[in-house]
Amino acid sequence: MHFPTVALIGRHQDTGLDAPLRALAHMLEQAGRRVLVEADTASNTGVHEYPVATLQEIGATASLAVVMGGDGTVLGAARTLAPYGVPLVGINHGRLGFITDVPLQEAHIALARVIEGNYQAEDRMLLVGSVWRGDQLMYTAPALNDVVLNRAGRGGMIEVRVELDGAFMYAQRADGLIIATPTGSTAYALSANGPILHPGLDAMVLVPVAPQTLSNRPIVIPGGGVLNMTLTAIGRVEVGASVHFDMQTWSDLQPGDRISVQRAPHTIRFVHPEGYSFFSTLRRKLHWNLMPQASDSVE
Fold this sequence. Notes:
single chain, alpha/beta, Rossmann fold, Tumour Suppressor Smad4, 2 domains, six-stranded parallel sheet, six-stranded antiparallel sheet, 7 helices, 20% helix, elongated
């Protein structure tokens, strides 16, 4: 049997999520699967008919996690579940959704195909970022999309010294700097004119946000490298900054602090119904190829 224990995780802030969750749970139960409902999801939707589990308990016991919501919901689940090796299926109950690629109206058919074994799987890299003040570790967190260094408040530009594997790359003045995975290349990095990276690449992309010098362009680097970014002072004014690890924020950066970013030791596995194509997702979400093609029939 494929995926004997399936966990349901929802963006519990959404109204009306209880009905589609119950429908999916019923379908899974009818198919002979044990169903778990994530604790916050159950508490906020009132879906208490099934065993309730924390994300950590889901990691220890589930063979598949179905995440219903937007990409942000998937990011949070993926960061916690990646060390356990639990694969994810993303069902779009949000808006754009590059990694919640299954539309809500197709969820039953798609999930039925998956648990029957008709699926494709792909492993995607995560990042781990750390904030250092001298030799003291101040904060560390994983990120599936990106690590973003931003100026604080309405202050001037920040200045950042960037090194890759100990080699000096550049010192840059900008509103911020994005370090994105291939998954994150279609998020904030894309809105800052960064390139789209195929999720199969072992790479990171650095994208400056409103750089002072227009010749400072995005650059793709090997995924196995270690980036060190040191926040420096600008002239006689020390400009504060914050650093974001997906949705997690450290806002107490000081000049001289160093942010280290590298590939995390774990990957996260995404499961898609058979026929999934990354390029098909790009065409739908970015409205490429407005004229329908014969090859798009699987979409």
